[in-house]
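DEPOSITED CHAIN:
***
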Amino acid sequence: MPIWKPDFDRQNNAILTRFARSIEATKPFAESFDYDGLYCWSLASSPQFWSAIWDFCGVIGEKGERILIDADKMPGARWFPDARLNFAENLLRPRPAETEAIVFRGEDKVERRLSFGEIVAEAAALAAYFRAQGVAPGDRIAAYIHNGPEAIIGMLAAASLGAVWSSCAPEFGVQSVLDRFGQIAPRILIAVNGYFYKGKTLDRADNIREIAGKLPSVQKILLVPYTSASPSLDGLADAQLWPQAIVAHEGAALRYERLPFDHPLYIMFSSGTTGAPKCIVHGAGGTLLQHLKEHRLQSDIKPGDRFFYATSTGWMMWNWLASGLASEATLLLYDGFFNAGEDGAILLDFAAEEKATFFGTSAGYLKQIEKQGLKPRESHDLSAVRSIASTGSPLLPDSFDYVYRDFKEDVQLASISGGTDIVSCFVGGNPWSPVYRGEIQCAGLGMAVQVWDEEGKRVTGHEGELVCTQPFPSMPIYFWNDADGEKYRKAYFSEHPGIWRHGDFATETEHKGFLIHGRSDATLNPQGVRIGTADIYNIVERLPEILESLAIDQEWEGTTRIVLFVKTRESAELDDALAARIKRELFEKASPRHVPSVIIAAPDLPHTRSGKLVELAVKEIVHGRPVKNVGALSNPESLAFFANLPQLADKGR
């Protein structure tokens, strides 16, 4: 039984309904006017579908005659090869100048509100500054910046003239930034002077000087005042404060360079915990079309909606959030500790006070506030919220219960999954379909998502690899410094030529929804049977004593065994009784194969800066292998615990 269904009014008033009616004359629906019928048509008539997205969403630009060429090649298919457009022009489509475009909060220290007219004027001035520095289409602009208005404005200014934008959050360490920006040779470096976290002010001056000194390509530095009004430029060559650059070009008109559909827009980076971060280049047209589809049709974001996602500029959800401007939504930006405030509810405070209609967060956040005992429906007015989205890691079934019990009963809970690789989602929500406990609602329109077994055959109701069998517009256009495309092909197409292998371990359900069990490379394999880590976490973390868990498989006496690390509440400890209970729960509610051979209490578990558990880093340390790019972690100091644990000594060696 579903735990939520949209009522008639919600379905009837959804943008998805208007879109379906707009194409109904073409008779795309085989038997029924429902999501499945629309989805099947979007795959069977893929060029017509994406052309219809362009038309329905009113993309500004010249579409051209051809929609898709070399459709049988993946990679190699090309979308809208004759099109010309500009990404920023589509995000800044005309609306009243006084419309609120951005509301920003930096913990409880800073609050700013910017109108649409203000962000257009500031983006125009910044673009004029870039042009004065000789920035041309294809040049890279790198930003070491917080999730504030300047990040959005900087991206818009860069995109308006065809420059390529790339960003890292200011909590990244120097080496992590250099590992990323050092590969792409940026011409301009934008940097924030500091940031707030857990009520503390953290200065970035030393980091910026070191980063700038090791990026010889940088010709100009723009320093953004945030934690202080007039930060020092000492030690920074060719540097200027952001406000001075804006004032110097005040009144400039915003000019848009219309460029090919595949003109590079973003360079984004893989997490880099097992090697140098991959530099993934995304095109302007594919990013725009995919985000318009996901925001309007899948998420029902309408003009005037108030769109929040808890993110940072180092995570692809920032790019996804920024595109909300193209749907004429107001962006609600937050920077800092997500659990700030006396009761750890600062994000809920923000959502309630600003009447957020879309509340986006992570599975980890929902799990954490449930463990804290927060009941938002009793403490906050969330009447405006229509949709709650969760990503970053699998959303466990208990979290579905929590949302509908303690958050809001009448809300669409959309667990979504995709990634930096496609700057969007493979699977997610839609406003027509019911929500089933623990399940992602559907595959995204136009995304030929399947689950394959180890023999390359499609399976339903069974775990396997998440793949995509048809090209789609938001595939990376290439990897940076990968002239022959070898790294690109190896990343996604080495397992099944011509088929995108995403690297998620998943199940397609009887409802045509999806379960994500974790990353394929973190999948456990005791005695040759594959087990998703999320299946273990789902059971273990129901226990009140357990805050979080992490499972790996350890090489042991010629085979592998499961090792489970748990982080307990301060008031609890992992004694023999709790360990036995964990094993019993896994035995009874999963299978004997899910029962770990060893359970160890850990003081902390490592996460990426987007909040994902890093099983692979722990596995490498346990096996005595080095972990690369630990700066990609939010808490790299946590790794020290896992080295040379006596509980894991291999007696057979």
About this structure: The longest strand covers residues 546-556. Residues 116-132 form the longest helix (17 residues). The chain has 20 helices and 32 strands. The mean pLDDT is 93.
